[in-house]
Amino acid sequence: MRPPPDVPRPTAPAGRPNLARPRLPCPAMRPPDYSGGGLVNLVAELEERLTGRAASRTLHAGLAALIPEAATYLLVLCDGLGDAQLSHPDAAPLAAARRGAIDAGFPSTTTVSLATLATGLPPAGHGLIGYQLWLPETDQVANTIQWTTLWGDPLDLDFDAFLPRPNTWERVVAGDVEPIVLQPLGFEGSLLTRVLYRGCRREPYADGAEAVTAALQLARPGRRLVLLYLPQVDFAAHVGGQGSDMYADAIRLTADIWQRISDRLPPGVVMVGTADHGHVDIPKDRQIRLAKPEHEGRTFYGDPRALFVRGEGASLAAGRPATWVPIEQMEGWWGPGKPHPRFAERAPDGALFPDPGHAVLHRFSDDRLIGQHGGLTPQELRVPLLIAGG
């Protein structure tokens, strides 16, 4: 659905941070730090150490000093494990390895962060700027996990070329470093795998024990960048919430994998752990469903904690626990540098930010989920920096 013709479209807001701080639902909310304190900077730090160059700025000196030099880095991405979630009693091995914290990108959501890992670029640069993403070339909003429309129809896209070239894996190969991704068996052959891992060797694992064995074997030779992806915490947080037995089981499994690898790391290998975003639990009575008439003349995408709107959005916040932020006040939120050629077309006219403890859902949102993310609270934005070895 297109916005009314009198609605101005945004220009690419990918330059310096906007000095006029927009009003947000709580003082703790802020845009990510892309200058050296973010996930994109961690990727750049590892790439520069292995190859001598990187596509983005490296970590701030204090954060970089926390990571020992190594011939091979094993990067463990614990999906959905925010820094605040290390306080869970079953997360003790992870908390013991914590050396600091960094920011995910905006919005704080899986496919945006994984695209940053895969490209070494902030969201503005790689162009995957939301979990639900408006694609002008298809005139549709895409679910960027399944790569379908929001109602499940397939999309006609060149998935292998969706992210810019060269990506992280192609650059490290050119630097005589072998990139390898370890991910669950069921992910192999998915469209998201095609989008993210062009040029990267892929190895599947069937369970936690196999993940440990494969990570230790693949990290042993020198000059490798190995990514181990662990999705268990995210799934459990979405479905069960952080107080559930399912969530405790997922935390224990993730912590056990980390500890078992840490105990047997080969010489010359450093394991770095982080996440793509954190989680907040949103009870059903605080999930705000937009009415059918409010969909007229508007296109909704993004996440329930940062709902993107093409069209007029300010009136949607009236009388609701939410704040409207127009695109003009979001400059730099998707990161600095040269924007993706389609960034301005994919960007919204603004975003609706629910108050802490709330979510805003459009008609294609999944209202069965307890755990949510995408916003700018510390619980969603801040992810841990874990270190073992060296």
Q: How would you describe this protein?
A:
Helix content is 25%, strand content 22%. The chain is α/β, with parallel strands linked by helices. Strand 12 and strand 13 form a beta hairpin. Residues 1-19 have low confidence and may be disordered.
The run of helices and strands is: HHEHEHHEEEHEHEHEHHEEEEEEHEEEHE
Strand order of the largest sheet: 2-18-9-1-8-6-7
Strand content: 15-25%
Helix content: 25-40%
Structural category is: alpha/beta
Low-pLDDT windows of residues: 1-19
Give the beta-strand count. Answer: 18
Q: So what's the overall shape?
A: globular
Q: Tally the helices.
A: 12
CA-atom Rg in angstroms = 20 Å
| Largest β-sheet summary | 7 strands, mixed
Rounded mean pLDDT score: 94
Keywords:
390 residues; alpha/beta; 7-stranded mixed beta sheet; 4-stranded antiparallel beta sheet; 12 helices; globular; disordered N terminus
